[in-house]
């Protein structure tokens, strides 16, 4: 079949993000021969094109936001944001990752490739010019921006492009109202741009609690962002000053003129050009079909982890790492470790920050459990007043029978930290009483937790 095999490995990993890196290093440390490839620089989306660089950029906007809130309350001037300086600082983190990762692979005796991959058959791959055979093949290719299949869809930039903008455009439009659009809209608006988000659904951020999302929508509009809902983008045209975007709302066409347009319409798994059919690897539009060991349901030689696998795990870096540990364990010891997801906190790094863990109210209703809901806007609490924030709210879902926390949904200062305490409480099945009798350092954001129960 095809060309002669040029190399053989015990394990070959496709994708050098957090899942792939975890698997390659662990298998190599136990003496297996390992190869890894990535057509992009090593490090994956999170370290190079996602969470890490984004959080570095947000740092400067947090300073501006805090100063704005305290203007006249101890601060006289609101600092300006220097986009070039932010980008230079961000780049120091991005540039150091690929060589650091590659050095780690070399130290562990992992053979590295920088080429795209196609399956040849059940256990053989075409990696660039080489034909490689492996006992176990791991697909950890992550996700990539959705293809916009309307006229001019290819003119939209991606989240990667946003994180590499040398100069911030004066006006930007984001297609899709998910967390990427909201986070970048907040960064751009605080840095002085005019920003529009166009979302086709009735409400943005559909995976989060609608009551908490409504607080974020208000805060986003107060920031000056134009939030356009129930509008389907149908066309992008290049014009003299930038782009003309057309969208339909109930049959009526709206048009927006902006300097730059970004595709934030979701990120499907990056698996569709791997020729999976040749290796008999079953998949759906949500990823490679896997069993509880994260092994392909149709080809036992193949495992998948992270965003490339169709699992209950959310598309989050810590989940990819956790799935990476499960896959490496099952490759090393035979299928013995089942994937078991703890509560997975997820955060939208806007300002105010929005965070969520555990069941939503809708999920609780569908579960048949008896529960109560506490929901309140608490901008009159001390922590909100000292920080002079307008949006601080929570919704907690408590099991009536055993007093445990089922879910927590928060918006406000530092709730990306507070949500971790709720995650710990849900995982360890701490009761409301356990939590209420804890002594938290005061005044901290965590010390508000007991009043949310």
Element layout with pairings:
Elements: E1 7-14, H1 18-29, E2 34-37, H2 44-49, H3 51-69, H4 83-107, E3 111-113, E4 117-121, E5 124-127, E6 130-139, H5 159-162, E7 171-175, H6 179-190, E8 194-198, H7 210-222, E9 226-228, E10 232-239, E11 242-249, E12 252-258, E13 260-263, E14 283-284, E15 287-289, E16 302-304, E17 309-310, H8 317-333, E18 346-348, E19 353-358, H9 361-367, E20 371-377, H10 382-387, E21 393-399, E22 405-412, H11 415-427, H12 432-436
Parallel strand pairs: 1-2, 1-6, 2-3, 6-16, 7-8, 7-13, 8-9, 15-17
Antiparallel strand pairs: 4-5, 5-6, 10-11, 11-12, 14-15, 18-19, 19-22, 20-21, 21-22
Multimeric organization: single chain
Mean pLDDT across the residues is: 96
Low-pLDDT runs of 5+ residues are none
Q: Please summarize the sheet with the most strands.
A: 7 strands, mixed
Radius of gyration: 24 Å
Helix- and strand-based class?
Answer: alpha/beta
Question: Which bin fits the share of residues in helices?
Answer: 25-40%
The total of beta strands comes to 22
Distance between the termini: 64 Å
Strand content is 25-35%
Note the total helix count. Answer: 12
Structural shape = globular
